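Q: Sequence in, structure out?
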Amino acid sequence: MTAKADTRLRRIPDKGSKDEQLARDIIDEARICHVGFTVDEQPYVVPMAIARDGDRILLHGSVVSRLITNLAGGLPCCVTVTHLDGLVYARSAFNSSMNYRSLMVFGSAEIIADPEEKERGLDILVEHLLPGRLSELRKSTRKELNATTLLSLPLATFSIKVGEGPPDDTKSDVDTPIWAGVVPLKMQQGEPQAAPDMVSGTPLPAYLRKSD
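A: Exactly. Output:
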């Protein structure tokens, strides 16, 4: 029997949260997660695409992938998502920090075997990763679907930690004439780069155009 994960925050517990909506929001803003698991006493952490379907996480991969094979077999795992929101410049290296939102989800994944549910789940992944794209793509072939395993992990046992706000300098450092504050960070879309073999004259789709 697998021991239940300890989700208590032992270091700065006031930064922790059990807010289920915040957990959903952190996942919905992410395109990538890191999945931790242990095989034969060797720990592994693997980056994977992620999407959410209600109160469960969707993960997918090749049917021959070691990660997917082990997770599909019920191996306990930890899925982690982190958003880096800013660099906190304090007046000392010790008090300098980062603003962030992080989520760890613990549990065992299950295979989504029903063909219709599997196709729906893969469509959710595509639309989350490539918004607006699904309606233009051809339907996946049976061979492609058979080569892909779709897993779900319930958003039931999780831990959230959030770092936010200005520097927390010691009183003796506050009068030091060094700039202190926060440098916000965010990910943004760059200019689309067309494939070299794209049909001449193919227009850029509206969903890839930057809004003013």
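The first strand starts at residue 16 and ends at 17.
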